[in-house]
Amino acid sequence: MDFEKYYYRQIIFIDSLSICAAFAYVRVHVLIYDRGSAFTSKAFSDYCTEEGIQHLQIATGVPRRNGQVERIHRTLIPVLAKLSLDDPTKCYKYVDRLQRILNSTICRNTKWSPFELLICIKMRNKEDVRIKDLLLEEMTEKLQEQREFLRKDVKNIKTVQTKNRKTYNKKRKKAS
Question: Start and end of every Integrase catalytic domain (predicted)?
Answer without folding.
Answer: 1-122
